[in-house]
Amino acid sequence: MKFTILATLCGLLSLVAARPSQPGYHNTAVSPRADKIRIMPFGASIVENTCWRAYLWKKLQDAKVTNIDFVGGQSGPASCTLNGASVSFDPNNEGHGGARAVEYVQGGNLTRWLDAAKPVDIIMIHLGTNDVITKTSIPDIIKAYDTLLSQMKASNPAMKVIVSLLIPIDPKLFGQGATDGIISLNAALRDWISKNKLLQVDNYTGFDYVTMTTEGEHPNEKGSVFMADHFYPVVKKAIEGGS
Ligand SMILES: *[C@@H]1O[C@H](CO)[C@@H](O)[C@H](O)[C@H]1NC(C)=O
Ligand SMILES: CC(=O)N[C@H]1CO[C@H](CO)[C@@H](O)[C@@H]1O
């Protein structure tokens, strides 16, 4: 009896394993490729102007995960230092200061950028802070996320989508409404990420906007280290697979 159950289980498992890769499939590696695994950082100024990408790149290199290429038409920041030492990293990204998710959808920007960088294997997203600051409603932001996700899947159905919850912002900067808006958007994003079986990075919990940002919004060195540390296990797993 036990044996039969085990055999049945094994049969089921091999069926699951034999299925072609599905959108949002968590625990498989990106299909083996001769060239490098292409990873697009996507968002607004927190993606464009801060050093978490540099620290993430360094952590991956230090862990001998070197078969990667960060992609995108943007290139920066010009330099990043960590504990006083300069960090070398791949600066390519699609972070655009001031950008909103709803604008990206209207402009068709992401589709153009994905086309230019094709194939994108993994996308890392931190996006929506400016939508909240400009008082876009949460349902409208989530609708934009829906459209962006369909654009990613159209570009590469096997694309692994990593979505970061938004880091908090100081109410001194844009008022309590914006600070609370980030919390509401994160709650909606948690549901959306889980509904769509995407990979989540929690960059909210434990992030302190007083000590970890330069002015209440953009991560300083400490905040960028925090973000890199939180992206790292999720990105590494997406690259390598395994559970
Ligand atoms: C997005 O696309 C629109 C339409 O082409 C363009 O006007 C806008 O500048 C683009 N946004 C960014 C951040 O590149
Ligand atoms: C403290 C905290 O929130 N940790 C979470 C950070 O993000 C990773 C990836 O989503 C989670 O696994 C941690 O629990």
From TrEMBL:
Q: Which SUPFAM superfamilies match?
A: SGNH hydrolase
Q: InterPro entries of this UniProt entry? A: Ester_Hydrolysis_Enzymes, SGNH_hydro, SGNH_hydro_sf
Q: One Pfam family, short name please?
A: Lipase_GDSL_2
GO terms assigned for molecular function: phosphatidylcholine lysophospholipase activity
Keyword line: Signal
Q: Where is the SGNH hydrolase-type esterase domain?
A: 92-223
**Secretion signal span:** 1-18
Provide the protein name: SGNH hydrolase-type esterase domain-containing protein
Taxonomy, top ranks, is: Eukaryota, Fungi, Dikarya, Ascomycota, Pezizomycotina
